[in-house]
Amino acid sequence: MDLRTLTSLSGVSGNENEVRSAIIKQLESMGIDYECDVMGNVIAKQGNQGPKVMIDAHMDEVGLVITHIEKNGFLRFARVGGIDPRVLVSKRVLVGKDKIPGVIGAKAIHLQERDERSRVIPIDQLFIDIGAESREQAQGKVKPGDYVVFDTEYEELAPGIIKAKALDDRVGCALLLEILKQDWQDVQVYAVFSVQEEIGLRGARVAAFAVEPDMGIALEGTVCADIPGTDKEFQATRLGKGAALSIMDRGSIPNRAMLDQLIKIAESEGIAYQFREATSGGNDAGAIQQAKAGCPVVSVSVPCRYIHTPCSIMSMSDFEAARKLVIKFLESVEGGFRP
Amino acid sequence: MDLKEFLKKASLAHGVSGFEYMHIAQVVKDAMAGLVDEVKTDALGNVIGIKNGHGPDPRPRIMLAGHMDEIGLMVTKIEEGGFLRFAPVGGVDQRVLPGHEVIVYGKRPLTGVIGVKPPHLTSPEETKKAHKMEDLFIDTGLPEAEVRNLVRVGDVVTFKRQVSELMGDRLSGKALDDRAGVAVILACLEELKKYKVDADVYAVATSQEEVSLGGALVSSYGLQPDIGIAIDVCHGETPGVPEWRTSSVGKGPALAQGANIHPKVFEALEKAAKEVGVSVQKEIAPAATGTDAWAIQVTRAGVATGLVSIPLRYMHTSVETLSMGDIEGAGRLLARFIASVDAGFVKELKTWI
User: Fold this and answer.
1) ipTM summary value
2) Chain A: nearest CA to B96, how far in angstroms?
3) What does pLDDT average to in each consecutive run of 10 residues of chain A (339 residues)?
4) Nearest to A92 among B117, B316, B319 (CB)
5) Which structural domains are found in chain B, ordered by start?
């Protein structure tokens, strides 16, 4: 399934239905066995012998949820996952299952005091306007609890350069589907399309408990700040410079043997890679590592500029590098690699 | 004429102040074509539709002004890596920019993103301050060499924003300030077909309102109207803004009152609204209205001005929101007003006692 389709789906943490359905459909068309668990994770399996490798990509994305409908028809909302309120102003959103169009407006610049312009508009002063004139009218279209996604069009800005919402982590989902296209024999690949990563790695935690893997790999769309105003030391990753390998984050420290194996493969196969030169943030590897008696983990990521905003940017060359690297790694597991 | 379709098309068209000729001017010309006797363009890019009246000479001359320019950005520097620095054209609120998509009008239109660091890499201290415009940049995703080949300093940039059809008759998008005013003029011209009109009507889609009111200034000089009516937008009610500073969206156009407005023009507009059953609101403007009316009023030996405004929320964001009904109502009341103007009314404008 391509990134255009995957990123067009709505899947705010806790409401991954659209993404899950699309992935299940895809797995069925590929003839791959899968199960869903009680939280909504999709766990697909390939291969009947060898070590159990859990490869995780989360289906959920950051977004908003409607909390209240005002008397005059405006919708109040809360954030789901880490969204900087500064990116919300003057954006288009889609509300609820029926994707009711709405806009997040703000007080006109003409009505602002001069010092207001340098202040952040707090989340409790933002609202969504769907054009309803009253609470009753709005209630006909939306209700508290409805999830809200950014309305962003998928676009190829330049050959291989993709702009879309939710690349974190539909890019991981796309990678995982690619990995499942291989016919794995001597490794048991547990492909987990997980839920609720953005609100605390909760889906991966229970999936890892059920799978009880020997190794874990998180596939991510990760931070990339190779942009003006950010010193080289703090850019984390660079667009187009290859698959990003985590060195440590707030959730986990990668297993050294697995990391070394990835580097060895990348160098011998000529696959572009870079280190994720940051320790902030965290991903499902943190939850997988600590499930049951624990297991070694690594994270392989595609750098995505501007994640957790309405539009992020990635390079297909990094995607390709990550795809090759993980496939070669799994082949090495089939060939006997053990951490 | 399908007003909503026109406004959707006009909203998507680009025409940053001073660069109206790039797209929006043509959209307006095409829309005016069947509604007036002649369409011309002046040196500042104003699009002027002329509809000849049928009254005895000298016929009253009425100018309608709705500005077709929009606020936007201009490329000021190409940085290492191909990132573009920019300056605002008109009153751009820096707080709408982070995470916004734009179109850079280089040798070909390029989609760009005004990117910001993700929360993961942002310190709690940083999140407390709004991003400053001078720290922001446009990322087109293209390699630097290609950016340098396609983009020049001075190229203009618009917000990339699809039009949203919200509930009821609400429309949301960019540049509705003041393509809505242009739509009102078209609605008025259409409606005028029903009337026998004495006056010559000059329907002007003005340029450069957002930066200088320059389009209205020079076009009113050239056209020498007796009466000039600006059609612009006013602030629609918005949470967090006191009710007394705004008008209601969907409750009819607002008629301005104040020093910028000739009292007899105001009265005649109010009367016309009543006659055609369009409910109106009042917008009190103590001094400058910040609209084309401000420039038109002091053109040559002076022009009797009026101002009809469409209530609009979130002005100068890319999600400006208005009601189509207000536009349609404004068109009807303006047509009625124009039909009511005769030589006697024009003479009265100079009679103060």
Assistant:
1) 0.91
2) 5
3) 96 97 98 96 96 98 97 96 95 97 94 90 94 96 96 96 98 98 96 97 97 98 94 92 96 97 98 95 96 96 97 98 98 97
4) B319
5) 3-70+174-348 (3.40.630.10), 72-159 (2.40.30.40)
